[in-house]
Write a structure and sequence with these properties.
5-stranded parallel beta sheet, binds flavin-adenine dinucleotide, 323 residues, FAD/NAD(P)-binding domain, alpha/beta
């Protein structure tokens, strides 16, 4: 393990998207001795397609907005250890010990008075046969990123929330034919098969000529070797297996918090880190912000505000810190 000149930092920020970069700007302006350790720059913000609800900017791509967050923090001289994924957090007295690895296997260890966890969320997988083998060969978890690759083809979006509906709507303008598979029946109780979907999106989907909704459809297998060729689902009423020819499968069945490395700090049943209104966890010196927390709405402006709250709370904590 590479032992860095393991000086004690005031703060380590984990993640470099809306929450992490906002926290970094505030920490820098208060002259904290800190570093941002992150897997990538931009996180889900960079994958958000066009963003039209970041106050002050009418229209910007998520990628560009994420770059602006990064540039803003860099303008204060913030140091980013990029490409490093946190694998472990430990606490020794009042000092936090953070271990991170990059994809080459290089390990770094940091010691810090406080931590802000701003590590966001990642898409849930279906668990269908062959899904793993066909990842990036037609199976995608980000329609905004990969949708344009399927121009004129047939695609299937799997899911029953807004993200799935938005995926199918986007694909309706790109692909020649789009299936959307929901496990729910088409009833009033299930909001027409999309219990967590907004009606405005459901109405739009239903009005699309090239979109076919498959209700009570449980995706079982994705078929293909070098690329996706078809999808097999179980009709949940008859239990018959049915096959549809598709070249792309968009999976939108929810997100999982990037909190597996968090050992100190209470998590809820979904794995979200529980924070109070000051972004404090129940582990002293550990703060959390943005989508990785139990904040009820996952949005860029909310994550950024959370990042600011976490930074200000961390500053209060650091000012009183004793070894
Ligand atoms: C398709 C899509 C469209 C969206 N559109 C909008 C929109 O129009 N408007 C809006 O307000 N919101 C939108 N959102 C939601 C928005 O993207 C999130 O609310 C926002 O990205 C949350 O920011 P965050 O900083 O909390 O986390 P993230 O953006 O998820 O960033 C997490 C950061 O942590 C890093 N990280 C993760 N795990 C580790 C680890 N173990 N070690 C080190 N670093 C780690 C990542 O590399 C990343 O830098 C959209 C989301 C999606 C998926």
């Amino acid at each position: 393990m590479e032992e860095q000149k393991n000086e004690l930092k005031d703060l380590i920020i984990i993640g470099a998207a809306a929450a992490g970069c906002a926290a970094a700007v505030y920490a820098a302006r208060r002259n904290l001795n800190f570093i941002v350790v992150t897997k990538d720059i931009g996180g889900e913000v960079a994958l958000s397609g066009q963003v039209n609800n970041w106050p002050g900017i009418l229209d910007i791509s998520g990628f560009e907005l994420a770059q602006k967050f990064y540039a803003h923090a860099k303008s204060y001289g913030v140091k980013f250890d990029e490409g490093f994924e946190i694998s472990e957090l430990k606490k020794k007295g009042a000092t936090h010990i953070i271990t991170a690895k990059n994809f080459l296997g290089e390990t770094r260890e940091y010691r810090s008075k406080a931590i802000i966890i701003a590590s966001g969320i990642h898409p849930r997988q279906l668990g269908a046969i062959n899904e793993e083998n066909l990842k990036n060969k037609g199976v995608t978890y980000c329609t905004v990123c990969d949708g344009p690759l399927f121009k004129g083809k047939t695609t299937a979006t799997v899911g029953a929330g807004n993200s799935a509906l938005e995926s199918a709507l986007m694909m309706a303008g790109i692909a020649s034919k789009v299936y959307i598979l929901t496990r729910y029946p088409n009833t009033r109780q299930t909001n027409s098969g999309f219990p967590r979907g907004e009606n405005i999106l459901i109405d739009k989907i239903k009005a699309m000529d090239n979109v076919e909704i498959l209700y009570e459809a449980d995706t079982k297998e994705i078929v293909g070797t070098d690329s996706v060729e078809s999808l097999i689902y179980e009709d949940m009423i008859t239990h018959a297996q049915k096959q549809i020819e598709v070249q792309g499968v968009m999976v939108h069945i929810g997100m999982i918090p990037n909190s597996q490395f968090v050992s100190c700090g209470k998590k809820n049943a979904l794995g979200e880190i529980e924070v109070n209104t000051k972004c404090e966890t129940d582990c002293s010196g550990v703060f959390a912000a943005g989508d990785v927390t139990n904040v009820p709405f996952k949005q860029i402006a909310i994550a950024a505000g959370h990042g600011v709250t976490a930074a200000l709370s961390a500053i209060e904590y650091i000012n009183k810190w004793e070894a």
